[in-house]
Design a protein that fits this description.
Elements lengths: L2 H24 L27 H11 L12 H4 L47 H10 L8 H9 L2 H10 L7 H14 L6 H6 L7 H10 L28 E2 L15 H4 L8 E2 L21 H11 L23 H12 L4 H5 L8
Antiparallel strand pairs: 1-2
Helix pairs in contact: 2-6, 2-7, 4-7, 9-12, 11-12
Length: 359
């Protein structure tokens, strides 16, 4: 054989072997911590058995956008939780892989790290990892079996490598899928709205925003001397939710179509009670309420102002909303409240490339 040709073959084979060795040695477990900038939010009480790492959050992000998790590989979590819409769905009800509609509006996915009282509108999932697997199996949503999902992921070299980097056991199983998805959703943080910047002293509210803020955080005064919208009772704290379940007067007893929390607790006092959502990013997350019945922020405000319906399980906090004339807010009050609510919009959330499709 020609010596030059032989030398060339040896070099090529050597390079191929080195490349294989390099690939193999690069795929190792890496538990480098993932750092979240909490800025303005309290340190969350995260589960100690699933500490965030760079590689596991990366895997969770890959899975969040992975259509293989659904039947026929046509939908991902991100199909119904769209980043530009505050990780929510602009449709009143999301359409699943079988073209069937869900019965409730898709909840927004951000600041999950501060949510401690069950997930979904009725709180049926105790943890975010438990929640993450339910839409995959739901016939109205992704309609896939966990065994089929795992088989598809196991056939992918890309996922074999990433699971090895993300978990010490390197296994592609439903537990690790749920832990990775939990980590990515914990990492989706929204804390850079105008409201946050005002709190930091970097900006100031306009006169309208200030009036709206005062209405938001003021009790209703039955004497009429002071106007108050009482929003803060349910939408309190840095995440603008109390993480509790309430019947907020959407329907009378006879008109109720969804039992809400009752389906989980089997307690009649929980009928028509739903999880109070965060008001952060309300600008992006229309339509509103568990059934997406309201298309605009004005409709939401007007519901609480004059359209609350009485029922057997309505919360005591709605007592003034139910009185004749409701809260007595006029059109200027509604405009000012909306102006304040819009200061909760975080443009960085919907543009952050760390949360976008990695493919």
């Amino acid at each position: 054989m020609n010596k030059v040709l032989l030398a060339g073959i040896i070099i090529i084979v050597s390079l191929m072997l080195n490349a294989c060795t390099s690939d193999e040695t690069s795929v190792v477990y890496d538990n480098t911590p993932y750092s979240i900038e909490y800025k303005g939010l309290p340190t969350p009480d995260l589960p100690p058995d699933n500490e965030l790492t760079i590689e596991a959050v990366k895997l969770g992000r890959m899975l969040f956008y992975e259509k293989m998790l659904s039947k026929n590989s046509i939908q991902s979590c991100a199909t119904c939780h769209v980043q530009k819409d505050g990780f929510s769905d602009k449709n009143q009800f999301s359409e699943g892989v079988e073209k069937k509609l869900g019965g409730r509006q898709a909840m927004a996915v951000f600041n999950m790290a501060w949510h401690q009282n069950g997930f979904f509108w009725d709180g049926r999932a105790a943890s975010l990892r438990e929640q993450s697997l339910k839409p995959i199996q739901d016939p109205l949503e992704m309609n896939e079996t966990l065994s089929n999902m795992i088989a598809k992921l196991q056939a992918s070299n890309k996922y074999k490598d990433q699971f090895a980097r993300a978990f010490s056991n390197g296994q592609i199983n439903e537990t690790n899928v749920s832990l990775a998805l939990e980590q990515f959703m914990f990492a989706i943080v929204s804390n850079n709205s105008k409201y946050d910047r005002v709190q930091e002293g970097k900006e100031q509210f306009t006169a309208s925003e200030t009036r709206g803020k005062n209405l938001f955080f003021t009790e209703f005064d039955p004497s009429g001397k002071v106007k108050g919208a009482e929003c803060f009772h349910c939408h309190s704290g840095p995440n603008f939710t109390n993480d509790d379940f309430f019947n907020n007067g959407l329907d009378s007893d006879i008109d109720m179509k969804d039992d809400g929390r009752l389906k989980v607790t089997k307690n009649n006092s929980d009928k028509a009670k739903f999880l109070v959502p965060s008001l952060r990013n309300i600008e992006f997350t229309a339509p509103y309420m568990h059934d997406g019945r309201f298309k605009t922020i004005e409709e939401v405000i007007n519901h609480y102002n004059i359209n609350v319906k009485n029922s057997s399980t309505i919360d005591i906090l709605m007592q003034y909303n139910l009185q004749p004339g409701g809260l007595g807010l006029n059109s200027d009050d509604v405009a000012d409240l909306k102006a304040f609510l819009l200061t909760l919009s975080d443009d960085t959330l919907i543009k952050n490339s760390s949360f976008s499709d990695p493919n």
